[in-house]
Amino acid sequence: WVPHALLIKMASALGLRCLQRELRAAPRIASAMRRMATLPGAVKVSMQELFDARVHLGHKKGMWNPLVSPYLHGELAGSHIIDLTMTQPMLQRALDLVQSVSSEGGVILFVGTRPQFEATIRRTAKSCGEYYVSRKWMGGTLTNATETLGGIRQPDLILFFSVPVNEVAIKEAKQCDIPTIGIIDTDQDPACVTYPVPGNDDSPAAIELYTRLFAEAIQRGKEIYFEQQRQNAAN
User: Fold this and answer.
1) What string of DSSP letters covers 206-224?
2) Angle, to 10 degrees, between the axis of helix 204-234 and the axis of helix 84-103?
């Protein structure tokens, strides 16, 4: 047995950033992680859906971040192509985690502050009964939650659909040890979020797909949660 804090230090010393992120998030969602493999009716995403939504299309070569190299398939017409064989299992894992957190009554926050996606973020979050930030992030929303959120509970998990324009929000989430899922395009650092999902973050079709899938996962998780509540009340 190794103390949790020591595992984090070991991961940091070895440069295992992905492992370090997950270990930091573990205390908050450890139970949800354990339940992921046992939940019924998981939302599934196919390679064809990803391709049709243009999830594989990255930025021009000159805009790339070398840290995203493991998730690239190649180049086409001067732009990077994201490897959907990497995206599909990483997005599937994110969907399973979202459903699991939701099945335990967790609060999930949608964050996407690009104007062109404001309506999509707002509509989708409302459709599954969750909170959202679709305009500029207010500094201190998480780190000064008593004043900014009032009596609203802090989220258990945050979904970022536009990582580059939400650096302040991501920093606050880290400070509060709130796990994050983020869509990582070819110009970004996958280590900035707890659970990166390599994919196009500029295509309206891609954003529609991501938000729809996450909303479905949340809805299914809530169905499980309320069914458990009814069974507990009956007993």
Assistant:
1) HHHHHHHHHHHHHHHHHHH
2) 30
Distance of CA 112 to the CA centre of its chain: 11
Q: Which residue has the tokens 């780190």?
A: 143
Q: What values do phi and psi take at 133, rounded to 5?
A: -125, 110
How confident is the prediction for the chain on average, in pLDDT? 86
SS3 72: strand
3-state secondary structure at position 171: helix
pLDDT score at 34: 61
Residue whose tokens read 């529609």: 208
Strands 180-184, 195-198: pairing kind: parallel
Strand ranges, E, within 19-86: 57-60, 72-76, 79-82
Question: What backbone torsions phi and psi does residue 183 show, to the nearest 5 degrees?
Answer: -80, 120
Considering the entire predicted model, what is its pTM?
Answer: 0.84
